[in-house]
Write a structure and sequence with these properties.
About 40% of the residues lie in helices and about 15% in strands. The protein has helices spanning about 20-25, 40-55, 80-90, 110-130, 140-150, 165-175, 190-195, 225-240, 240-255; strands at about 1-5, 30-35, 60-65, 95-105, 130-135, 155-160, 175-180, 205. The chain has an eight-stranded parallel beta sheet with strand order 1-2-3-4-5-6-7-8. Helix 2 runs parallel beside helix 3 (about 80-90), helix 4 (about 110-130) runs parallel beside helix 5 (about 140-150) and helix 5 (about 140-150) packs parallel to helix 6 (about 165-175). The longest helix is centred in the middle third of the chain and has 18 residues, at about 110-130. The chain is globular and about 45 Å long. The structure holds zinc ion (2 copies). One zinc ion binds near residues 159 and 160.
């Protein structure tokens, strides 16, 4: 049994075969999926999908998030933030705020706007008592700074972790979680020591589909069924039994996001 703790099933690349993607996920043992929103309109699409598949047989159980991705921070309006607040507060299957954070690699939005929106997501998560899903790329220092401001009052996960040891230590010291994607399966991946150093009770796995398909699917569309490849690689890197890795990553995600209802 596995959880895909982060994917974007509302992405247009799933439009033609979303149901098939869900069937394949369950057939691959992925019983629970967290569907992550990228902006206000997308958060509405996410909850639409959650409502559509609720109670349906032969698909995994889905939960969702509401938030504005740092790429989209520059275009976010107050209405988007109102939508996100309402969904995060009122929708029974929205279990986290995000994804939010900082992306200084692509820098699709101005850094100051990203930081300000990240702080607002942290405040909303604190207010609602929900965990926050954080994206950080080439922004270790700024992310650590914002975590240190509010991270003791909020539970969070650094998703698709690609940062350095200092950011990881900051997050772990605050009691936060770290989640890995198919990036750890790439030959070029250079941080296997960091993967080994994370305590087992702080680790989750995710696909971030449709992005970042793990080897041997690299370069193609990713999908939740492939989260098993991330778990397999985690087991190899950490020298652990695959069943054990599947067990604790599933338990962590279920507990952290409260994927029980
Ligand atoms: Zn992300
Ligand atoms: Zn994402």
């Amino acid at each position: 049994m596995l959880v895909d703790s982060h994917c974007h099933l509302t992405d247009p690349r799933f439009e033609a075969d979303r149901r098939g993607v869900l069937f394949r996920a369950l057939a691959a043992g992925v019983e629970r999926i967290l569907v992550v929103a990228s902006n206000g309109a997308d958060a509405l699409s996410v909850t639409g999908l959650l409502d559509e598949v609720e109670g349906m047989a032969e698909v995994p159980r889905l939960w969702g998030t509401a938030g504005v991705h740092p790429h989209e921070a520059g275009g976010a309006k107050e209405e988007d933030l109102s939508v996100i607040r309402e969904l995060a507060r009122d929708h029974p299957r929205v279990v986290a705020v995000g994804e939010t954070g900082l992306d200084f690699h692509y820098e699709h939005s101005p850094r100051a706007v990203q930081e300000s929106l990240f702080r607002r997501h942290m405040a909303l998560a604190e207010e609602l008592g929900l965990p926050v899903v954080v994206h950080s790329r080439d922004a270790d220092e700024a992310t650590a700074r914002i975590l240190l401001e509010g991270g003791t009052r909020v539970r969070g996960v650094l998703h698709c972790f690609t940062g350095g040891e200092a950011l990881m230590d900051t997050a772990l010291d605050l009691g936060w979680m770290v989640s890995f994607t198919g990036i750890i399966t790439f030959k070029s991946y250079g941080s296997r020591d960091l993967v080994r150093s994370v305590p087992g009770d702080r680790l989750m796995v995710e696909t971030d589909a449709p992005y970042l398909a793990p080897a041997p699917h690299r370069g193609r569309r990713n999908e939740p069924a492939f989260v098993s490849r991330v778990a397999e690689e985690l087991a190899v890197i950490r020298g652990e039994d695959l069943n054990e890795v599947m067990g604790y990553t599933t338990g962590n995600a279920v507990c952290f996001f409260d994927l029980t209802s």
